[in-house]
# Entry
Amino acid sequence: MKILVTGTAGFIGFHLAKRLVERGETVVGLDSINDYYDPDIKYGRLAESGINRDSIVYGELLTSERHPNYSFIQSRLEDRDVLETLFQKEQFEVVCNLAAQPGVRYSLENPWAYVDSNIVGFVNLLEACRHHKIKHLVFASSSSVYGLNEKMPFSTQDNVDHPISIYAASKKTNELMAHTYSHLFDLPTTGLRFFTVYGPWGRPDMAFFMFTKAILAGDPIKVFNQGNMMRDFTYVDDIVEGVVRVIDHAPNGRKDWSPEAPDPSSSRASYKIYNIGCNKPVQLMDFINAIEEALGRTAQKEMLPMQPGDVVATYADVSELVRDFDYKPDTSLTEGIGEFVKWYKAYYGDQG
# Structure
C-alpha cells in the first residue's frame, strides 16, 4: 500500500512510519516540525528515518537516504494547497493521522493552536481523503476525551460529552467530524483513543521524560495531586502494533446499529472507535519508582496540587480491540521503562 502518515517527526508517528516501512509499505511522512517542544529531537527522529534536516524544503517531497520506500514532506495540515498537491501526486490508499497539537495544559494558554491544527487541519485532511477516494482514514484520538467520566475502565460505549480541556474537546471534535464524513461520503474512518504513551524517542513535555531528565540532573520532580493519580501507561510499540492491525481492516458499518440505543463507538456508517491502552492502570508513585529503579537513583519529589484540565485516573477497556483484532498491549512497565531509560542515556548521556 501507499500510506500517508502525518506527524512523523513526532513520537508515535516516527515509530509507526518505521514499522510500516519495515514491513514493505510505501510511506510518505508529513510534519510541520513546530517548536511546541525542542525541534532538535524531531530532527533526530527524522535523521533516524534517513531524512537530512539540511535538505528539507517546506512543501517539497524528500526521499529518505536509508529507505527508498520512505519520503517526507514538511507541511502544516492547515496548508490546503500543499495537501491537495500531495494527494493528487501520490494517490494514497490509506491515511493515518497522528499529527496534532498535543498537550493538555498548553491548551489553556494557546487554544488557537488546537483549533488550527487539530480542527481546521483535520477537516482539511478529511476533505482530501473524501475527494481522493481514500480507502481508510485512521486517526489518533485520546483518552482525554473521557473527561469527567469516573466509571472504570473507560469504555468506548460510554458517553464522552464532558471533556475538561481544550485539547480533549479538539479530539472529540475529530471523532464527530470523522463520523460525519463516514456517513455523508462513505469514507471509512477509525479513531484510536491512546492511553498515556511512553517509550524511546518520547516527547520531552511528558512526565516520564521530564522525570528522567530531572532525576539525572539532581533536580526535584513535580508530583501533582500529591501523587494520588493513576494512568494506563502504554508502551509505544504496543500502540504501533494496534495501529497497524487497525490500518489493515477498514470498518464496514454495523447493520444492527440502533438509533434508539446508539453505541457511540460505531455506526451504520463505516466508522469505529477503539481504545488502545495497557488495561493495567498504575499508581503515579509506582511509575516514578520504576524510573528510579531503572536509573539507579532516587528522585527528590515536590508534591503539588492537581492541575487544571487534568484527570485523576485513566483505565482502558480494550475488550473490543481483543474481540476484533485478537490483540491487547502487554509490555510490562519494567520492560518499557527500561527500554526508554536505555535510549535516553544513549541519546543524552548519563547526566541528561
The chain has eleven helices and 14 strands. The CA atoms of residues 346 and 352 lie 10 Å apart.
